Amino acid sequence: MPAEVYCEGDDRTYTVTSVKDRTFFQNQNIFKLTLPDTIEEMGERAFDQMFNVTEFNVPKNLKVVGYQAMGYLGWEAKSIGLTVNTDRTLEIPGTVEEWGDCGFAGNMQKSIVVGEGVEYIGTYGLSGNYNATSVTLPPP
Question: What is the DSSP string of 63-130?
Fold first, then answer.
């Protein structure tokens, strides 16, 4: 996803700062999700259930995570012969101010780090991360 998009209609360039509700919900044609750090808000289920994603990042300036915004990425990839890089760390930046329920539920990484500054994790915010053997939370 680009950090900026150009609109011919008004001859302007816009910075991508949000991904609205269900924008990529259940899209099975994307295998790698590279998000720019300009994204500050992910709407409800924006990237939810993209089962074939083998690799993704969380934008470093993210502030708002909607309900199940990045849930269940990569769940089916192995069943269709794709290699999922589970050795990566799911890094949630300390810039997150609003974390909706199930925001990062059901992902495949072995390690999860929640950045210092995050004060609230929504209900079931990290549930279903069955590969996780390490979770680091910020100090109270």
Answer: -EE-TTTT-STTTTGGGGTPPP-TTSEEEE-TT--EE-TTTTTT---SEEEEPTT-----TTTTTT-T
- Residue 32 makes CB contacts below 8 A (sequence gap 6+) with 53, 54, 55, 56
Average pLDDT over residues 4-9: 97
Q: What is the DSSP string of 16-71?
A: --EE-TTSSTT--S--EE---TT--EE-TTTTTT-TT--EE---TT--EE-TTTT-
Q: Averaged over 11-27, what is the pLDDT?
A: 98
pLDDT of residue 41: 98
Q: Under the phi-then-psi rule, with left for phi > 0, alpha for psi from -120 to 50, and beta for the rest, what region is 126?
A: alpha
β partners of residue 89? 111
Give all strands of the β-sheet with 134-136 in edge-to-edge order. 89-92, 111-114, 134-136
Instruction: Give the pTM.
Output: 0.91
